[in-house]
Each structure stands twice: as structure tokens, then as C-alpha cells.
Amino acid sequence: ISRRTAELAVAIAIFIVGLAIIGDSIHLGIGWSNSSPEPGYFPVRVGGILALASIGIAIQALLDKSPATMQEFVSWERFRLVLAVFIPTVVYVVLMMLIGIYVSSAL
Questions:
Q1: What is the DSSP string of 7-43?
Q2: For 9, what's the count of Cα atoms within 13 Å in the CB-facing half-sphere?
Q3: By the 8 A CB rule, do 53 and 14 touch?
Q4: pLDDT digit string (tens) for 68-87?
Q5: Low-confidence residues of the chain: pLDDT under 50
Q6: How far is CA 40 from CA 26, 64, 90, in A?
Q7: 45 C-beta neighbours (distance < 10 Å), count
């Protein structure tokens, strides 16, 4: 995949996370109570900042017309190195949930 495609995918993912934070914050309350802010007051702003930043990332990726944006994002050889760390980590986390941290760590 190209670098532009990867940047757009990350922008979409960050936007979705920002919207999820905003949605959960609204349920908690985003205003002020009599003495202090409600629990969602600060998280809704963080979600908004994430959403706005992701829009900026997407616009920047779409407007960048340099040839570098169409180059390959990651080669298969380098991606295999990432997977060599990522897959065992996922297996470890799943095992922790199923059999506990001590037994998983011993394996």
C-alpha cells in the first residue's frame, strides 16, 4: 500500500477513536456541576482534538502531491520483522486473559 493510503487509514482510525471518546463523554456529562466539571468535561475536549487532528492528517495526505506519497509504505521484509514482535505479543495477551499472567509469563 502507498504512504498516502496508510496516512488516510490512520486518520480514519483516529477520527473514529475521537468520536467514540466524544460519545462516551456525552453520556457522562460534559458541563459543569455546582462545584466542578462533570466527568466527561475534559475527555470530550480530548476527543474533539483527536477528531480535528485526524481531519488535518487526512487533508494533508490528500493535498500532498509529491511522488513520495505514492511509494510503498513498508516492504514485506520489514513488515515481517514487525509481525515477529506483534504476533507473540497478541498470543501473550490472549493467554493472559485465558490462563492468567503468571502461567502465561512462564511459557
A1: HHHHHHHHHHHHHHHHHHHHHH--SB-SSSB-TTHHH
A2: 7
A3: yes
A4: 888 888 899 999 999 999 99
A5: none
A6: 6, 36, 31
A7: 14
Angle at the Cα of 75 from the Cα atoms of 74 and 80, rounded to 5 degrees: 100
Q: What is the pLDDT of residue 107?
A: 85
In whole angstroms, what is the distance from residue 103 CA to residue 7 CA?
A: 39
Nearest to 30 by CA among 13, 17, 18, 47: 47
Q: What is the Cα–Cα distance from 88 to 79, expressed in whole angstroms?
A: 14
For residue 1, give every residue at least 6 positions away whose Cβ sits within 8 Å of its Cβ, in sequence order, or none.
Answer: 72, 73
**Rounded CA separation 30/22 (Å):** 9
Q: Which of 56, 63, 91, 74 is nearest to 6 (CA)?
A: 74
pLDDT at residue 71 in the model:
87
d(CA 100, CA 64): 47
